[in-house]
UniProtKB/TrEMBL annotation, chains A, B:
Name of the featured protein: DNA-(apurinic or apyrimidinic site) endonuclease
Record-annotated active site: 191, 230 (proton donor/acceptor), 328 (proton acceptor)
Recorded family membership: Belongs to the DNA repair enzymes AP/ExoA family.
Domain Endonuclease/exonuclease/phosphatase residue range list: 89-328
Any GO molecular function: phosphoric diester hydrolase activity
Biased composition, class Polar residues, residue ranges: 59-70
GO biological process: base-excision repair
Protein's organism: Leptosia nina
Amino acid sequence: EEQEMEVDDTKPAKTKRGQKKIGEKTEPEEEPLDSVEPTSKRRRKAPEEKGGDTKKTTNKSSTQYDKIDFSNSSKNAQNREWNIKISCWNVDGIRAWLGKGGLEYIAHEKPNILCLQEIKCSRDKLPEEVTNIPGYHAYWLCSEKEGYAGVGIYTTKLAMNVQYGLQNKELDDEGRIITAEYEQFYLICTYVPNSGRKLVTLDKRMKWNEEFRKHVKTLDEKKPVIICGDMNVSHNEIDLTNPKSNKRNAGFTDEERAGMTELLGDGFVDTFRLLYPDKSGAYTFWSYMFNSRAKNVGWRLDYFIISERLLPSLCDSVIRDQVYGSDHCPISLFLHLTSADK
Amino acid sequence: EEQEMEVDDTKPAKTKRGQKKIGEKTEPEEEPLDSVEPTSKRRRKAPEEKGGDTKKTTNKSSTQYDKIDFSNSSKNAQNREWNIKISCWNVDGIRAWLGKGGLEYIAHEKPNILCLQEIKCSRDKLPEEVTNIPGYHAYWLCSEKEGYAGVGIYTTKLAMNVQYGLQNKELDDEGRIITAEYEQFYLICTYVPNSGRKLVTLDKRMKWNEEFRKHVKTLDEKKPVIICGDMNVSHNEIDLTNPKSNKRNAGFTDEERAGMTELLGDGFVDTFRLLYPDKSGAYTFWSYMFNSRAKNVGWRLDYFIISERLLPSLCDSVIRDQVYGSDHCPISLFLHLTSADK
DNA sequence: CCTAAGATG
DNA sequence: CATCGTAGG
């Protein structure tokens, strides 16, 4: 049974723009820059290759977004363009991210919903600049451990219901999951426990996987589910640069990979891999060490995983690997939702 | 009795400049920029006022030294110019100081001896750049506590003997004093224990003062003594911006001030205050907080204190308040030493 | 290599 | 408001 839902939504939007309904775009339709070749098949062209960008991860410049095309003209199975965009970013410390211009990402991406992981900040230390973003409501779940983990959701439309944690005493003290209920779906924003150096916390991770799966299956019985966040696993060899040498490292153990396989076996889909089954070099995380990002030595750890019955709505699932400000990059999911999804 | 002296002096100077003898200037005499008004009296003109310098403490620029005149034409009581310069700087972390260009200070000041306090670095983590400075030997005493306290001495001429600590078990684990014996004097480089917020370590400080005084008096029976370092006390009201509000704060308690008075009563002289008895606003430390340095809200905590019988040799004692790179600034002592000092 | 907190000053 | 160390990744 669910505990009472709390809503941390104290501030009204300051702008007069008014609230957007989910299913309503946040700005006028843009003409796509690419050719409008119909994408009748699930298979897509690979995302553009990164240029020889030497930008540092600590770059604060507001110009990083000028080169990025945030428009998306991909169609769903019924040849409809997206009408809701959900984005997701492990920010690796929301205060550092703020200092690196993280808010500009929101202004450029303009998602209907943005899920953040690893905010590493207790609720009372969240700067007003991040709690009070015009046009968005926000839900936060912070770790009891200071400066550790923590997740948040920005949303243009209020959720019907918000559930904090998994309702499991052992697993709910670190701020790792918020479940937001909307009319047509449940949205899960999660930061899955890392198994640690030398896999010291693999047991905890396995326990998490178990409870998480239960949670997701329960939700899925009621409404389709959209899971997003840092799943802290690269599912297959194609999902990281060095699969061989990482077989016994956190993020690519058999146990963690099997966890993902099980989840997908319950009727969920890894949207990016569905759309781009052969795309290699597509990562969402690069260690700060060894200049990994410049060399694109990375891992795909961040996912949009959706109930299979949402597939007709799926327009695109993309990795914003040009966006800097964390050791992860953002990802975005584009859906066309209609009343048929209810 | 003294323990065996260790000398941490593994590297020969890399340059071919050769060693300077103490009493030999490290570079050709420069023509002083100021008028050569003879300074027959102990009383001097005040150091120049700081300009409206907005430089940050973290400034790495190598240009900060261009505006500073390191020459000094002050004479001793026999109207002789200096032939030995000793400098002293609480660097507040030698690695951070190195990154802020601290070594450039040495190149510009060119002291015969430079004493450093608060190196905050264990011996094995000292960067080679600071342990291997051409033309200087180095002695180090590091705290057993990582990244805490610690002192060091650079010297162009090898000391005859080097004593590490006070030979007191309770007080010698934090790297707070090196005593170097030269032909004509003992040099003490010290970082006196801070009494702490709410004076939690005032007892330890009092114990230190007691043992330190014994040590100094013992040395003084053999040779004149030059004490330099962060004494962690402002002796009198003139020595800090806010004496009233700091009467019960570390650095200006009656107990600490009395300690300095006692030391001076044993036949030692605070050289700066002797030469500039009325000079106010002369500080060597400014809290990083509240933009204190820009406002010159500071404390005089760093001293050259010498045996009275060295007074005939004293040419000048100056505060390098234009030099940035720490929350303290360097100070320099100019002496003319002759065989009469032996 | 980055984030963060905590201790110290 | 700086310097550290350490934990975490």
